[in-house]
Structure formats: structure tokens, C-alpha cells
Design brief:
The protein is α+β, with helices and mostly antiparallel strands. The protein has five helices and 24 strands. InterPro entries: AhpC/TSA (IPR000866), Thioredoxin-like_sf (IPR036249), Thioredoxin_domain (IPR013766), Thioredoxin_ResA/DsbE_sf (IPR050553).
Length: 431
């Protein structure tokens, strides 16, 4: 199924302005905490952000989700209007300050061919709660802290999910993990027999609204994007786990190696058979700039590569973008490279579609998720494929991933360069 590149998949943050009307020049941006609300098909999704303007040349808007902080640069486009580009996500928030001090605006897709898609919002200064003002919550006798076996239904049952929740009083935080990645940090509240959680960090605002049943199970509805609403149900489970992410995507029978030839951002064709990669451990990262789990994975890989690039290791990112156009990919993937200081090669795979990705990488059984990370040994053989990415908010899952990553890469890097490749490399160096 083709990835839909509008606001549901790469949402944006809020904004701040400097004034309104004839007195705009006399007004200043209100720094501090704000509370905003998106309205999606009659569903309200609240979000919180902070505006700082110590440096008037470049004010910053920071989206807040529990412990997570995402910064976005604010551009003034008028006396009372601003434009906030969503970093690597090709979307922006355009907004203005009203006479009553509120901010009104919309999130806009910037993807060519999808411009005009928008999501309205309104925000108020000085409100630091998400759903209910602190101290005004209704009492509850429930505590949702723990691990949950979560099933989400659309027209058909979707792959199982695991929710990790933490409740302190009425405050509820957590994350939902699936085979393709995680929801990023959720924040909300429990009141009586009901709970609600939301998230907005740039892409895909979403809200989980549910009821706690007498038997301790939960049921509810997940809303994200326009007209995108699905049912869910869950039961507490200490033992529930997702499928092994190292066994979901694999090489077809008869294959040991991965092979592709794709253009880099300047149009130069790059192949795994190029001399640059021979005799080295190679990490292939299949991503898209529209994908939040992909940018989280890139935020992990980029500094790791900088610290290890002199150990006989290379990395390649293959980006599948929201428009099948190299010039557009040069812009989006170039933005990603600058944002995360990427020092490894970035190639363009085509349109953001799992079917297309599977066709470009025919050795794989199928492309299951963005991101997918493939590790290749010094002989050029695929040794590991990891589907999806779970970030820091997943706690022990993330720590275990990092531990295994470093152990596995250390072991592969320690393997000797095949004799024939070692001789060929020495010959090239002597020429």
C-alpha cells in the first residue's frame, strides 16, 4: 500500500507570532508553555509546546510529549504570522496571532502534488495541561501501569501491538510498540473508568481514547490523521511479546547476498559491488524522511557511524520518498543529512511504497517496514536483518537493542578480510 504523504503521516508543531492588526509592531511573542488542539473529523487531539525567543533571529518552538522534546525553527512571515517547517518532514505549520492572544492556523503538507491538504488548530498561552487541568481530574480506582497485549482492528485485524503504560495518580504516559516501530511517547490522563492518550512531535498527531472494563480489559478507538479511526482492545499481560524483529524480513531461498544499483543524491549510480564496500562490514538502512521511526533510527545510526567509521565499516541509507523524483529526494534526503550530520552514503530508491521497495531489493522475502536495517559482513553476505525500530521510550527494549547492536557489529568488524579481497585492496593502494 502506498504511503499517503499528507498531514497524517508527517504532522507539524504549533507556532507563535508577534501581534495582530495595526498594533502588531507593539506586540511581542509570548514565551512559555502553550496548549493547542487539532480537530480531526470532529475529534480533538491536544498537544503542548514551548516557545523560546532568547535569540530573536531564530525563535524555537519545542513540542512536548512526556520526557520527549522536539525543536523546530520559527520563521516570521508577517507582522502577526509565522511559518514552522517540520524539520525533515515535508510539512509546515502556518499560523497567526488573534486579537484575543490565541494562535490559529493550520498544518500544511508541502509535498508537491499534495499541497493544500491541511489540518486546523488553535492554541492558548499559559496552559500546561494536556486533557484536564491539574487538580480537576475525576478520581479513579484503576492503575494501568504495566504491559498490555493490544489488538487494533481496521477492516481486518492488524498485527498485534504491545503497550507499555505508566500511571502516577491520574497522569498516564507510555508507548505502543508494533512490528514496524513505536508510537513515540504518549501522554494523557485516567479519569473514572476512562483514559485518553495523545502524541504530536511533528508527524502524525494521534489520540487513543478508551474505557476500562469490569474485567480489567480495555477497549477504545485510535484516531490519527483525517478519517483514520480504528478500534482497539487490550488485556494486561506480563509475558506478551512482539514477533522477533530479526526473523520477520529475510533473504529468499538461494540468496546469501543483497544486490542493488541506485542513484545517490547527485545522480551517480552506486552499487554494493563498488570497491568502496568490498571487504568491509556494511550497514544498509532502508528509510523515508516522512517516517518518524526512520528519523529516530537515523538519529541513532549517524553518531554511531561517526564513532566507528575507521574500523572497517560503511553505511548506506536508501530513501523511499513521497514523490518519485530525484530532485525532490535530493531536497528531502539532503535535509535529513544536514539535520543529523550524516557522513555515510544516501541513495534514492523511489516512491515510498513497500511494493516498490521490495522490487528494488528482490533478494528480500518482502519489505515489511520502514525502517529496515540490513547488516552485511566482510564477505558481502547478509548476516542480519532487523525490521522496524524501537526508540529510547521503550526502555529495556531499546537498551537490549543497543547492546545487541554493538556486540554483533564488534564481532563482524573483528572478522578478517577475505584473503582475495585483502590482496586486491593492497594492489589498489600500491597503484
Amino acid at each position: 500500500m502506498k504511503v499517503k504523504p499528507f498531514l497524517a503521516l508527517c504532522s507539524v508543531g504549533a507556532a507563535i507570532l508577534t501581534g495582530n492588526g495595526a498594533q502588531a509592531q507593539d506586540k511581542t511573542i509570548k514565551t512559555g508553555i502553550w496548549r493547542g488542539e487539532f480537530v480531526i473529523s470532529e475529534t480533538k487531539i491536544p498537544f503542548n509546546f514551548e516557545y523560546t525567543a532568547q535569540d530573536r533571529v531564530q525563535p524555537i518552538l519545542t513540542l512536548l510529549n512526556g520526557t520527549r522534546r522536539d525543536d523546530f525553527k520559527v520563521q516570521q512571515i508577517g507582522p502577526d504570522s509565522i511559518f514552522v517547517k517540520m524539520n525533515t518532514y515535508d510539512a509546515a505549520l502556518v499560523a497567526r496571532v488573534e486579537s484575543d492572544g490565541k494562535i490559529t492556523g493550520e498544518y500544511r503538507s508541502l509535498v508537491p502534488g499534495f499541497r493544500g491538504n491541511s489540518l486546523p488548530f488553535v492554541a492558548e498561552h499559559g496552559k500546561n495541561y494536556r486533557f484536564v487541568e491539574y487538580g480537576k481530574e475525576q478520581p479513579t480506582n484503576h492503575n494501568l501501569t504495566g504491559k498490555w497485549d493490544l489488538k487494533i482492528y481496521s477492516k481486518a485485524k492488524l498485527p498485534d501491538n504491545v503497550a507499555l503504560l505508566k500511571q502516577e495518580g491520574n497522569k498516564l504516559t507510555g508507548v505502543v510498540m508494533s512490528t514496524v516501530g513505536d508510537s513515540r511517547e504518549l501522554e494523557g490522563v485516567v479519569q473514572g473508568d476512562e483514559f485518553v492518550l495523545s502524541h504530536f512531535s511533528g508527524p502524525n498527531p494521534r489520540v487513543y481514547r478508551g474505557k476500562i472494563n469490569e474485567d480489567g480489559s480495555i477497549t477504545g478507538e485510535l484516531s490519527s490523521g483525517i478519517y483514520n479511526s480504528t478500534k482497539f482492545e487490550g488485556i494486561p499481560s506480563k509475558t506478551v511479546e512482539l514477533p522477533d524483529p530479526y526473523k520477520i524480513t529475510y533473504l529468499k531461498e538461494g540468496y546469501k547476498k543483497l544486490d542493488f544499483t541506485l542513484p545517490d543524491l547527485d545522480g551517480k549510480q552506486v552499487s554494493l559491488s563498488d570497491n568502496k564496500y568490498k571487504g568491509k562490514v556494511v550497514i544498509v538502512e532502508i528509510i523515508g524522511t516522512w517516517c518518524p521511526n526512520c528519523t529516530d533510527q537515523t538519529a541513532f545510526l549517524s553518531p554511531w557511524f561517526k564513532a566507528n567509521k575507521n574500523r572497517g565499516v560503511e553505511a548506506i541509507a536508501i530513501g523511499f520518498e513521497q514523490k518519485d523524483d530525484l530532485a525532490y529526494a535530493k531536497y528531502t534526503l539532503g535535509t535529513l543529512r544536514k539535520k543529523y550530520g550524516i557522513e555515510y552514503d544516501i541513495l534514492f530508491g523511489g516512491i515510498a511504497d513497500k511494493k516498490v521497495a521490495s522490487e528494488k531489493l528482490p533478494a528480500l522475502n518482502q519489505m515489511m517496514a520502514f525502517p529496515t536495517t540490513i547488516i552485511i559482513d566482510r564477505k558481502g553476505e547478509v548476516r542480519q536483518i532487523h525490521t522496524g525500530y524501537t526508540g529510547e521510550i521503550t526502555g529495556e527494549y531499546f537498551k537490549n537493542y543497543v547492546t545487541k547492536w554493538n556486540q554483533d557489529l564488534d564481532a563482524l568488524i573483528a572478522e578478517p578480510v577475505p584473503a582475495d579481497l585483502s590482496k586486491a585492496r593492497a594492489s589498489r593502494q600500491s597503484e
